[in-house]
């Protein structure tokens, strides 16, 4: 039996050639991709994507610098996770100050991933920080309306605690009932030092009914009414006209003796005794008031 070699046809040769070219193209493409991703040295701007967050008002503000982006490619992300930022100055900032932001990074990772860090230092001018009010005339009606709403909301949320803890005239097991709450005074507290913040105080007269022990010898309970003065503080009042939740807080106004706080001069003296010379006091007009039980 004889065997004859049959050379491949033109179509088979053409198919093999195309396959070889495609394979070569794929190999070149993979090599190029690997080179672009892992071997080519790339410039990485360290301060391009930083976030600069200020806290406070001009003259007493602080700053934080960070990069929270997490969608870089794999090698860049690992490197960027090693970057740390330092800013100077970082406290007592005011509009117009210049910040110097510097960055440090893992040099071994930079070499490993062929990264060339650029713009490792950046200068920033502080701007748009809220300023202290120059006059109470700058208080906007819409802002004062928001204070009314926040005050009402605060009392509604905390009234049960106020009734149970701040009405000390009542018998310990008494369950006080709210009779009336009335806004008596609203004052603007202009801080005399930068370390303090300007604030607004709302003082409410809150009347409740509860059981009182009227016997000095034993236990004889009668229902009586009692009134306390409760103060809501809105701290950090400035040109941002923002009321942050942590800057709103309330407390029972404590004062010695029996004073008639419906007398404005007597009340002002109580506030001066509480805060000393930290603030200059300005009485503000009260909103149109309706009783709110």
From TrEMBL:
Source organism, top-level taxon: Bacteria
Annotated TM spans: 21-39
Source organism per UniProt: Longicatena caecimuris
Listed name of the protein: Uncharacterized protein
Keywords: Membrane, Transmembrane, Transmembrane helix
